[in-house]
Design brief:
Elements: E1 5-8, H1 12-23, E2 30-33, H2 67-70, E3 73-76, E4 81-85, E5 90-93, E6 98-100, E7 103-106, E8 110-112, E9 125-126, H3 131-138, E10 146-150, H4 154-165, E11 169-174, H5 186-198, E12 202-205, E13 209-213, E14 220-223, E15 228-230, E16 233-236, E17 240-242, H6 245-249, E18 258-259, E19 271-273, E20 278-282, E21 287-289, H7 294-308, E22 320-325, E23 328-334, E24 341-346, E25 354-360, E26 363-370, H8 373-384, H9 391-395
Parallel strand pairs: 1-2, 1-7, 2-3, 7-19, 9-16, 10-11, 10-16, 11-12, 18-20
Antiparallel strand pairs: 4-5, 5-6, 8-17, 13-14, 14-15, 20-21, 22-23, 23-26, 24-25, 25-26
The chain binds flavin-adenine dinucleotide.
Length: 406
């Protein structure tokens, strides 16, 4: 019998869990497996300042190099866990080693959704999930190069913004009729389409990618609508899939993510899960959610650590997220699904600073704030409180942000 806690996956949730396990008083052994050659690092800069070359590896690392040794954690980088044997409480790694565990934390994150069209494997077709992907994309950064970005979501648009600033000719192809259609109101989509156009990025909506052309290297993207887009490099950003296979093969319950309760417990009481790979029952929204955000990974990392340390600290959070494009900081709090009214504060047609408040039958459920930190901060509180707001007060900029709720 061992009391060792093993963490599988070395990303944002794992790094937080290590810190929180010690903070919660767990003094036993901890072992951490990650299949990348790096210690846990932040992914958001990979499509922002790190991609732009403005910051280096030292600024994306989540913890200093000696943190894990000092915290008494045995680390195994470049090591994939391939099997969990729950009956014997052992796990197997890709290099054939076996380890016994007392308790497990699954923090396996997610992976990119791949595009399955002819030419998908040509040189120059890239995705963006990890540090090595950034290096491959950066190798194409020279003024005048032509880039096609497939997908007008956050990651695609962030890549487009960075590349345009580097003098690259960028075209974004989006299948929906507007960018970021899944998550924001048309007001916000059209604002971003305008700004990108002003920065020299071409966005084409209603375009489905049918294939990539080229002998060994990609030379053009062809669309189902008959378009042909010559290019030197393609970056595909069409969403992610949670890494649930290891859990499913071990017989754990999976429901659009490894299903956990509000304490991050899976269907096995000795196994917790946290971060992108999970789905959880969210008390505020009254539904099961799978979130893809740093905030969720950190907060679930804390909750799971508390549970593994024998305490109970339920996870019940209003989600929040951000995206940086050019000089624009978009901060989103809440989830706007099912809103009945979008109320704008500020002017999205000419300026670069406004907020959209999403109401559902009068109750605030989400806010998109563009260069509006005060509105974002206030909205975080008001969404958690399920505040009922007067649309006229939201839109009236003569009313101070802190007075919006009356
Ligand atoms: P991850 O960070 O994905 O870590 C999981 C790790 O586990 C990975 O290294 C994976 O390779 C490893 N692993 C998986 N299976 C195994 C196995 N069997 N054995 C060993 N290791 C394994 N979020 C925001 O809130 N704001 C942003 O602006 C933002 N921007 C982003 C930009 C980019 C380019 C990307 C890729 C993500 C961005 N995100 C952003 C999302 C955010 O980074 C993720 O939600 C967060 O990293 C999730 O953390 P995690 O620990 O759950 O998973």
């Amino acid at each position: 019998m061992t009391d060792e806690i093993i963490i599988i996956g070395a990303g944002q949730a794992a790094a937080q869990a290590v810190q929180s396990l010690r903070a919660e008083g767990f003094a036993g052994p901890i072992r951490l497996f990650g299949d990348e050659p790096y210690a846990p690092y932040q992914r958001p800069p990979l499509s922002k300042k790190f991609l732009a070359g403005e910051i280096g590896y030292d600024r994306v690392e989540l913890k200093a190099e000696d943190f894990y040794a000092q915290s008494g954690v045995a680390t195994h980088w470049s090591t994939r866990v391939t099997e969990i044997d729950r009956r014997n409480k052992r796990l197997l790694t890709g290099d054939g080693q076996e380890f016994a565990y007392g308790k497990l934390l699954l923090a396996t994150g997610s992976r990119v959704r791949e595009i399955n069209v002819p030419g998908f494997d040509l040189e120059g077709v890239h995705y963006l999930r990890n540090i090595d992907d950034v290096k491959s994309i950066q190798a194409h950064f020279r003024p005048g190069a032509k880039m096609v970005v497939v997908g007008g979501g956050y990651i695609g648009l962030e890549v487009a913004a960075v590349a345009a600033k580097r003098g690259i000719e960028v075209t974004v192809l989006e299948a929906a009729d507007r960018v970021m259609a899944r998550v924001v109101d048309p007001i916000v989509s059209h604002f971003y389409e305008r700004v990108h156009a002003e920065e020299g990025v071409k966005i084409e909506t209603g375009v489905t990618v049918a294939g990539f052309e080229g002998d060994t290297k990609v030379e053009a993207v062809v669309s189902g609508e008959g378009g042909r887009y010559p290019c030197d490099v393609v970056v595909v950003g069409i969403g992610i899939l949670p890494n649930t296979e290891l859990a499913a093969e071990a017989g754990l319950h999976v429901e659009n993510g490894i299903a956990v309760d509000e304490f991050c417990r899976t269907s096995d009481p000795d196994i917790c899960a946290a971060g992108d790979c999970t789905s959880h029952p969210n008390g505020i929204y009254g539904t099961r959610l799978r979130l893809e955000s740093v905030h969720n990974a950190i907060e679930q990392g804390k909750t799971a650590a508390a549970t593994l340390a024998g305490k109970e600290k339920p996870y019940n959070q209003v989600p929040w997220f951000w995206s940086d494009q050019y000089d624009l900081k978009l901060q989103i709090t809440g989830l706007s699904n099912g809103y009945t009214q979008a109320v704008v504060r500020g002017d999205p047609t000419t300026g670069r600073s406004f907020a959209v408040f999403y109401l559902k039958e009068g109750v605030l459920i989400a806010v998109d704030a563009i260069n509006r930190a005060p509105e974002f901060m206030m909205a975080k509180m008001l969404t958690a409180r399920k505040a009922v707001l007067d649309p006229a007060r939201i839109a009236d900029e003569s009313i101070a942000v802190k007075e919006i709720a009356g």
